[in-house]
Amino acid sequence: MLGDARPRGESLVLVLGHAEYHPAFGFAPASRFGIRPGFEVSHEAMTALVLDDSVPVPKGTIRCPEAFGV
User: Fold this and answer.
1) Do 37 and 61 meet the contact criterion of CB atoms below 8 Å apart?
2) In terms of Cα–Cα distance, which of 38, 41, 43 is closest to 27?
3) pTM of structure
């Protein structure tokens, strides 16, 4: 899936998951980039991977569609 993101022009990938798994693939806590989830979760579980460092990383609070229930 990450291999599909770069060709599509994505500059950032966010993942909510296991705090010890995703860093092995280059992910870091999203809070380091000024990104916060709009729901209760540990900051280590919301991770980000910058794919294109020539593009500014957006900062702010993530809002999920109602279907996610958060």
Assistant:
1) yes
2) 43
3) 0.84
Instruction: Look up tokens 């010890």; give the residue.
Output: 20
Place of tokens 């899936």: 1
Distance of CA 70 to the CA centre of its chain: 16
DSSP line for 18-64: -TTTGGGGT-EEGGGGTEEESS---TTTEEEEES-TTSPPP-EEE--
Containing H/E element for 69?
Answer: none
Angle at 61 between CA 68 and CA 35, to 5 degrees: 110
List C-alpha distances in Å: 4 to 8, 15, 24, 45, 52.
Answer: 6, 15, 19, 23, 14
- Give dist(CA 25, CA 69) in Å, integer: 28
Q: What is the pLDDT of residues 17-51, one digit of tens each?
A: 888 999 999 999 999 999 999 888 988 899 999 99
